[in-house]
Specification:
With about 400 residues, this protein is an alpha/beta fold. The chain is built from 15 helices and 15 strands.
Length: about 400
């Protein structure tokens, strides 16, 4: 393990902060550290908190983090703030509102700007949550921008999505009619000491009765007064219940059929391996290229429908080189072609599968994502966007 990754695994907060900045800026070295730490992820409970601006999301997260620390849990907080369309900057106000937590070594807080992304999250939010998970945090709390009805991207990232509403804002009916109603695992009525709390709770419960949710989960409605800590332990209990409950399916429709795109085989040398395929089997290499990001030399050999991909390390830090050092030449991964990578990734996340990284562009311009062997029965699985392959 490289020194940077090792320090993060050992709990070095400065190394973690450097990596978080690098991941947000898409620095190749930081992303390589994230890939190296990926097998350590999967332990944390990832909680997304969304809702209208002014609902008290930051104060609620502050109170929730304090309760978690009282129980001895380590906490990572990712707070997403909007980017100005005029200046391109962002006021990272959550750092100000949660400044008392910064002195606690068991809490790591990172504010990040959306940088033009829609849906309430920044592009790197998922990678940052995975980094905090891999760094050993027990809970990762993600606060979204707070744009209201369209802010549903958090549901694909978090294990538990908390939607925060408040009485007396005048838009509670509209808020619960939109897509945000459908993503909620837990409803929180914050500032519950204000007038109108009964009305908001009544509207939420009546709307929930209009539809059914698979696996029998009924989102609870929790009243809180975050400034006083009231109801926060009840919220934590609801989060734990949801995290332990089987995830619901995004759709009752069956998953679309998949097909094998290629088998990835790690070899020490393409020049030594290719003669067998080209001479003994009569398979010519259709494509040979170097993928700089992965530090690998690739030879792609057609085999009817699917293909065989020979992978040679192109550098000492190559993942293929490390695979060869640990296991020797052989099957490295199986690649499946999917018609809709985004939908496939959403299904995997709903079932708690461990993704090694976010979907990205690979050799030949196709989009791909790797799924950790811990979720697949022991084999590294690659999913490739069908119409990009």
């Amino acid at each position: 393990m490289r020194d940077w990754a090792r320090k993060i695994a050992e709990g070095d907060a400065r190394a973690l902060a450097r990596a978080a900045t690098g991941v947000e800026n898409r620095d190749p070295e930081a992303l390589a550290v994230l890939r190296e730490l990926a097998p350590r992820a999967g332990h944390a409970v990832v909680v997304g908190v969304t809702g209208a601006p002014g609902a008290g999301k930051s104060t609620l997260l502050d109170a929730l983090a304090r309760v978690l620390r009282e129980e001895g849990h380590s906490v990572g907080i990712v707070a997403v703030d909007p980017t100005s369309r005029v200046s391109g900057g962002a006021i990272l106000g959550d750092r100000i509102r949660m400044q008392d937590l910064h002195a606690d070594p068991g809490i790591f807080i990172r504010s990040m700007a959306t940088r033009g992304s829609l849906g309430g999250l920044a592009r790197a939010t998922g990678d940052l949550a995975q980094l905090l998970d891999a760094a050993g945090k027990d809970f990762v709390l993600i606060e979204t921008v707070g744009v209201g009805q369209a802010e549903t991207e958090i549901a694909a990232l978090a294990q538990v999505t908390v939607v925060v509403l408040v009485p007396g804002m005048g838009d509670d009916i509209q808020a619960i009619k939109a897509g945000i109603m459908e993503i909620a695992d837990v409803f929180v009525i914050n500032k519950a000491d204000h007038a109108g709390v009964e009305r908001v709770e009544r509207e939420i419960k009546s709307t929930l009765q209009l539809g059914t949710r698979p696996n029998g989960w009924v989102p609870p409605v929790i009243r809180t007064v975050a400034t006083q800590g009231t109801g926060v332990r009840d919220l934590l209990s609801a989060i734990r219940d949801r995290a332990a409950h089987p995830r619901e399916r995004a759709s009752e429709a069956p998953a679309p059929p998949l097909s094998i795109d290629h088998l990835g085989i790690a070899v020490r040398s393409l020049e030594e391996a290719l003669p067998f395929y080209e001479v003994a089997l009569g398979m010519g290499a259709a494509v040979r290229e170097t993928v700089e990001r992965e530090m690998v030399n690739v030879a792609m050999l057609p085999a009817g429908g699917p293909r065989i991909e020979l992978l040679e390390p192109a550098g000492p830090e190559s993942a293929i080189g490390k695979f060869l050092a640990k296991r020797g030449p052989g099957l490295h991964h199986v690649a499946l072609r999917v018609p809709d990578l985004e939908a496939a990734v959403a299904r995997l996340r709903e079932r708690g599968a461990r993704l090694i990284h976010e979907p990205r562009e690979g050799a030949g311009g196709h989009l791909y994502v790797f799924v950790h062997p811990a979720s697949t029965g022991g084999v590294l699985l690659e999913l490739i966007q069908e119409n990009h392959a």
